Amino acid sequence: xxxxxxxxxxxxxxxxxxxxxxxxxxxxxxxxxxxxxxxxxxxxxxxxxxxxxxxxxxxxxxxxxxxxxxxxxxxxxxxxxxxxxxxxxxxxxxxxxxxxxxxxxxxxxxxxxxxxxxxxxxxxxxxxxxxxxxxxxxxxxxxxxxxxxxxxxxxxxxxxxxxxxxxxxxxxxxxxxxxxxxxxxxxxxxxxxxxxxxxxxxxxxxxxxxxxxxxxxxxxxxxxxxxxxxxxxxxxxxxxxxxxxxxxxxxxxxxxxxxxxxxxxxxxxxxxxxxxxxxxxxxxxxxxxxxxxxxxxxxxxxxxxxxxxxxxxxxxxxxxxxxxxxxxxxxxxxxxxxxxxxxxxxxxxxxxxxxxxxxxxxxxxxxxxxxxxxxxxxxxxxxxxxxxxxxxxxxxxxxxxxxxxxxxxxxxxxxxxxxxxxxxxxxxxxxxxxxxxxxxxxxxxxxxxxxxxxxxxxxxxxxxxxxxxxxxxxxxxxxxxxxxxxxxxxxxxxxxxxxxxxxxxxxxxxxxxxxxxxxxxxxxxxxxxxxxxxxxxxxxxxxxxxxxxxxxxxxxxxxxxxxxxxxxxxxxxxxxxxxxxxxxxxxxxxxxxxxxxxxxxxxxxxxxxxxxxxxxxxxxxxxxxxxxxxxxxxxxxxxxxxxxxxxxxxxxxxxxxxxxxxxxxxxxxxxxxxxxxxxxxxxxxxxxxx
Amino acid sequence: xxxxxxxxxxxxxxxxxxxxxxxxxxxxxxxxxxxxxxxxxxxxxxxxxxxxxxxxxxxxxxxxxxxxxxxxxxxxxxxxxxxxxxxxxxxxxxxxxxxxxxxxxxxxxxxxxxxxxxxxxxxxxxxxxxxxxxxxxxxxxxxxxxxxxxxxxxxxxxxxxxxxxxxxxxxxxxxxxxxxxxxxxxxxxxxxxxxxxxxxxxxxxxxxxxxxxxxxxxxxxxxxxxxxxxxxxxxxxxxxxxxxxxxxxxxxxxxxxxxxxxxxxxxxxxxxxxxxxxxxxxxxxxxxxxxxxxxxxxxxxxxxxxxxxxxxxxxxxxxxxxxxxxxxxxxxxxxxxxxxxxxxxxxxxxxxxxxxxxxxxxxxxxxxxxxxxxxxxxxxxxxxxxxxxxxxxxxxxxxxxxxxxxxxxxxxxxxxxxxxxxxxxxxxxxxxxxxxxxxx
Lengths: 690, 440
What we know:
The complex is a heterodimer.
Chain A: H1 2-21, E1 44-47, E2 53-58, E3 64-71, H2 84-91, H3 101-110, E4 114-118, E5 121-127, H4 131-143, H5 149-165, H6 170-183, H7 195-199, H8 203-213, E6 219-225, H9 229-240, E7 263-268, E8 274-283, H10 292-303, H11 309-317, E9 321-328, E10 336-345, H12 349-365, H13 370-387, H14 392-404, H15 414-420, H16 423-433, E11 440-445, H17 447-456, E12 458-459, E13 462-463, E14 465-469, E15 475-476, H18 491-502, H19 505-509, E16 513-522, E17 525-534, E18 539-545, E19 548-555, E20 560-564, E21 567-570, H20 573-583, E22 595-602, E23 605-613, E24 616-621, E25 627-636, E26 639-653, E27 656-666, E28 669-680
Parallel strand pairs in A: 2-6, 7-11, 7-14
Antiparallel strand pairs in A: 1-2, 3-5, 3-6, 4-5, 8-10, 8-11, 9-10, 12-13, 14-15, 16-17, 16-28, 17-18, 18-19, 19-20, 20-21, 22-23, 23-24, 24-25, 25-26, 26-27, 27-28
Helix pairs in contact in A: 2-5, 2-8, 4-9, 10-16, 11-12, 12-16
Chain B: H1 2-14, E1 27-30, E2 36-41, E3 47-54, H2 68-75, H3 88-94, E4 98-103, E5 108-115, H4 119-131, H5 137-156, H6 163-171, H7 185-190, H8 193-203, E6 209-215, H9 219-230, E7 253-259, E8 266-274, H10 279-292, H11 298-306, E9 310-318, E10 323-332, H12 338-354, H13 359-376, H14 380-393, H15 399-409, H16 412-422, E11 428-435
Parallel strand pairs in B: 2-6, 7-11
Antiparallel strand pairs in B: 1-2, 3-5, 3-6, 4-5, 8-10, 8-11, 9-10
Helix pairs in contact in B: 2-5, 4-9, 10-16, 12-16
């Protein structure tokens, strides 16, 4: 121990000595060294007869190679078959007409390599010693894909499951509305995939997409790595030279209309706990625009990072959000979008929109400070310099120069052009591309909480028009949350009206038992639910996935259990209170002490909201008295989650009006269940509930 | 969607086994205060990485202070004597660089990547952090909230986000690996300023750290700057590690866990294995590749592609310093219970125990590792991280050039033998990872 102390003392002394001799002053930041010199090489470029432009970058630092195919096609309007490009890309790379799926996969795997596909791209990478084989396999997959009905059905199912899982996803619906509002749904950038449009596709549509769109005419093939240029040229020409050119179809869609005065575009998401707020406008900004770099810097200063204005204002100063940023798109084919955005808590939705607009406007009204501009430039310069470490960078640059029609020295002069941008040029670009006065404020949020303030919101003293949309981006009526409860109406009356509407008290009371068999799909798998309820407050619910029992709840009127994966857990007292509420065939018959809380909108229908118990609400249609929805607050690991069931397709069964679809919603996940069979008044023995 | 996310998470963990084929040149030495320095010169691009790894992680903590190392990492972005609070990130951006840090159970790693004319600036920042960070109540209060948000975002609110925690608590009984690296909420709240200051004194001395400078540098000038900036840092305490030793698992453990963010249950079959520097850990890397890496791997091809029993299947050898966690993760599809998946998984593992893998499969594994090796050190940021890790946690910096040889030296017989030694049914933990809704 003592030895160590002495030793460390000695070190301390040594340390002290070095302070004395050092010429550094820690309180001052070290100066930058001389700016490193940069050399940008040009790739070897040639064009095949079929139109494919090939770029080769020889870099022997590591014995590896990557091959990237980019088809520079204009966006495609998929219309009532939206989803065809997704289907196509997920089916590619699963074998070829020359090699079965297994053979193809085995070969790629054995080399430790990978080959992937997009709707208008493909890539392969691996060790350079396998270059020839890798190119051969990739070219085979490109030219002769194995597109089968089985794979088609599998991918179709996956996409539909994905769409369903996003039905209540606030972010996803916000993004969809933003594109739809900016471009219109009859534009490739504004249209979106629905279950219907996916189902409109057949294998023939995918094959036709391949034949018309996946063509070399305007393609670029970029090869980077440990290659010999001459040999690689030969290999590429051999493998891709016979890829057939096609008569390229001209793109047809109309140019999106410019936005008028700044307006709000709102979609009501009753389950939202945060609002998605985006301020956007279209920009005509191909990369070759003379003020492209000024515009990039303007965006960077406004919202390009966690030290930019939006972040400092909306998060650091106002604490509205975890983060707020902006982005500026660029496209040569269509107008692109400028967006400034944040996810904010409900209460500050309108304030956040005002701050976003104000910050955008300030960019146009005042020049940025020299310091802000210097920092933004430093980021661009740093990223540009550091990107050179990656051999793909020079290829990317060459690709952009060719595909965007840029001057040959665009990147060679990039740094000096970035550095020469003035605050006035940044302001001019902001004025041109960020239009706070003709912007679209797109908000997805809980209307009941956020609309009253949003509808009163003003910008520069002017009120803003509010447009309302459905989650499918169709125009909607202004939601009315204030529909007054009619004078003298009580919860008991609403419940009595419901009982009357579905068949009357006498008839319902005559039902001794009710058993339902329902079926639906979740993540592509069939789910079956069987529910049994009796007058004796017996209850049983069995859930199976693909015929396999996942869970069972059984209650005999006194006690019960929950069974999961073969393990039984007895119901606790609080579970029993809950299950008793559910156990009757028509729980409303025995209901008392309910309160009428208001009138709300349920999928476009006005409904009375009735609180049935401490953690359960039901919504009954104002028009016809039918029950539209039930919401239960569930305690899940200390957090309260809402689980909702919506009732639809009411049909008469043995004199009783019963719902034949149930839509179960837990968090962002929805399961649609169809009632397949209904049994009334069965002779059930107590043994059924043991 | 969910499956993809899990895959990415696991892929991150999996990345640690890789190395490279190209020879990485480096030199290493100690400063008198005990700071180990590793320099790697590559003037191919004007980029430099400055990084410091401290040999302290989640496992270095007292009872009731889980998550301490990670919390402390956040505090070291708050500022130093000469770097004002809240300006760290801006300073890095203003010099055109980027930076970050991360904490594992075993070590904490801080790094910056800059254009190479900012080398001195990077050294100044990291030496400021080592010499006199400002650790005060304001920082503790702020970062407590931030760390809790991070926990909610990455674990509590994330589908399958609690898997590692559940595996840890079932594989370990006494070693601190039993608790999650991010910590428990109550422990995060209970941490005091005095404890953080004591923690710095205990673990953040130069003698418990390695500094790596990699990229476009001049060796002599760099050495002189390092001496100037890091020389004055006083030597810290001697760190003694004395973690309890786990008894072997000799009887299968069954456990259940619930996640409110999932709809599809998962099965996890896990084994406790030797630390990542051991030869057995390399063998287990090869076994996990054999089982689930690529469309033609054994478990994937059988269970996902052909028999369609699993939506997803993966085997992961999660290396750690003292013990590894080898786990197989599967999501059922069709008329399959978790038990079916467990049976199918065990069938393939039994095959590895009972028979030699084929020559072709053996070659395929080596080809994959060779590919990983080549790609691992493709930039100086990655090389800096690998040099620090091999020196500090594997005790041999030269592994950066030699690790592939270890894999190549492993025979098919050895693969079978390690499977027999560590992957027996009575050594496994089987976890039913279920949707929260299944609990009601």
